[in-house]
Specification:
The protein is an all-alpha fold and about 90 residues long. It is about 55% helix and about 0% strand.
Length: about 90
């Protein structure tokens, strides 16, 4: 798949292009053309990815909205907030 098609697909699905690479196995990097030709590995750039662009977030939101009961969704949201608050105290 070309880069432009991947970009188009990410726009249609409303996800960042990085969404398609989050679960890529490590052996794929070792087989990349750059590695096979002996190119130097660039230094990793330190950054904190946007949590709203992560696959985990998207899956969680989709599962949340599949819950048919609005009351159950509200209680789940309250539980998540309580867990986040308690986790921040450690």
């Amino acid at each position: 798949m070309s880069g432009s098609r991947l970009f188009d697909l990410s726009r249609v699905l409303d996800v960042p292009v990085s969404y398609f690479f989050e679960d890529m196995p490590g052996d794929v990097e070792r087989k990349s053309p750059a590695k096979l030709l002996g190119a130097a590995t660039p230094e990793p750039v330190e950054y904190e990815p946007d949590p709203m662009a992560k696959r985990e977030t998207l899956e969680l939101v989709r599962a949340y909205y599949k819950i048919p009961s609005a009351a159950a969704r509200r209680r789940l949201a309250e539980l998540a907030k309580a867990l986040a608050k308690a986790g921040g105290e450690e």
